[in-house]
Design a protein that fits this description.
alpha+beta; 5-stranded antiparallel sheet; 3-stranded antiparallel sheet
Length: about 170
């Protein structure tokens, strides 16, 4: 799997990506709205194994986002299975280096991944789990055509589940 947009390449994780991905995972700005916050130390290898490597068996996972011009890893995005109310749904998620926020790059990567989900994996619905205080992600999900479905659960009323029919 390799996806290309005008400015980006979204591709599978490679062991040479470790330091760049670890830096992103440890950045509090990048991981601000993550349910666990920054990932550091020994947790990085486990995180990469769980979210980048293991899901590849199902053609899912998180994938580095690389700029075409500099070949720099500027973030990661992808598709992961989530259990919501005893139903397995596929989530579209992403994280981007703050130096690249507001440039439309997350939108490019996510659009390519949505296309891949529909055309290559025959997935007909995606969800996105978003902290309702994360204005940028809320705006991106709206631009991508996601609609509010419900709050994650009553104890996490600030987390919303959004969905898109592909």
């Amino acid at each position: 799997m390799k996806l290309e947009t005008e400015h980006l390449i979204v591709r599978p994780y490679d062991e040479n990506d470790f330091e760049c991905i670890a830096k992103l995972l440890g950045d509090p700005r990048v991981m601000k709205f993550s349910n666990k916050g920054p990932v550091e130390g020994d947790e990085v290898k486990a995180y990469i194994q769980k979210f980048f490597i293991k899901p590849l068996e199902e053609k899912l996972g998180l994938w580095p986002i690389v700029t075409k011009d500099s070949e720099e890893i500027i973030g990661f995005a992808g598709l992961l299975n989530q259990n919501i109310d005893n139903e397995t749904l596929v989530e579209l998620g992403y994280r981007l280096n703050p130096l690249h926020w507001g440039k439309g790059l997350a939108s490019q990567a996510c659009k390519a991944i949505c296309f891949y989900a529909k055309e290559e994996l025959c997935i007909h619905q995606l969800i996105s789990i978003i902290d309702l205080k994360n204005e940028a992600s809320l705006q991106l999900s709206k631009r991508l055509g996601f609609k509010f479905l419900k709050n994650l659960d009553s104890s996490l009323s600030n987390i919303g589940i959004f969905h898109k029919i592909l």
